[in-house]
Design goal:
three-stranded antiparallel beta sheet, alpha+beta, two-stranded parallel sheet, 2 domains, 45% helix, Arc Repressor Mutant, subunit A, Transcription Regulator spoIIAA, 7 strands, 7 helices, single chain
Length: 231
Amino acid sequence: MLKRIRKGITLEQARTAVAWCKEADILPHASFMVGLPGETMDTLSQTQDFANELKIAYGYHFFAPFPGTTVREELDGYDIEILTDDWSRYDANAPVVRTSRLSPREMIDFVAEYDRYNKAIWDETKKNVREGTCTDREYLLVEGDRKLRLVFRILSEDLIEEFACAGRDGSDPVDLLSASVAGRTGTDEAFTRKILQGFIDAGFLRHSLAGGRYRYYWTHNRDVDTLPISF
């Protein structure tokens, strides 16, 4: 399968990379494709066995051959049928192809079974964190997920750009922003403040006071405030 899609890597190389990550105390994560040319239920089972062998976090994505790729341009040479040219569906989260021995429904069911298994483990991990019985790794995973979800909403909903409030004597602008974001996202205010303070300390988020109103803005980077730059 790896040779067919010209991956240029072997299973043994993947094993070695994972081992190196573990030795360096890095948490590796793998993503496996479902629906590759020639895919069957047997090859999916082999993929699952290999993923479990690595003993790391992993997930599945659906094969999505874009224009210009070898598979799409040389379709007759592969056991693959493209089902749609609706590019909005080419996000690797749903099947857009089938093979002669694997239907879209079988692909969906395979991933859904993994998702059910993974959700049960994740629910148990979150329970351990809530009850204070978690390992350091479990705590890191849950806190990282909370941060990822909050930051995604902050960025995707423009919560920083839309924030503005009247400055009050003795008021802390970070507290004001934290209260606003926490209210919009339904997130714990102390946790929200911690995340926002991290952006501020890193130089990525700053505020201004003009006309008696606080506004926050993202910097271009930690060294350059905003663009355009005047010389």
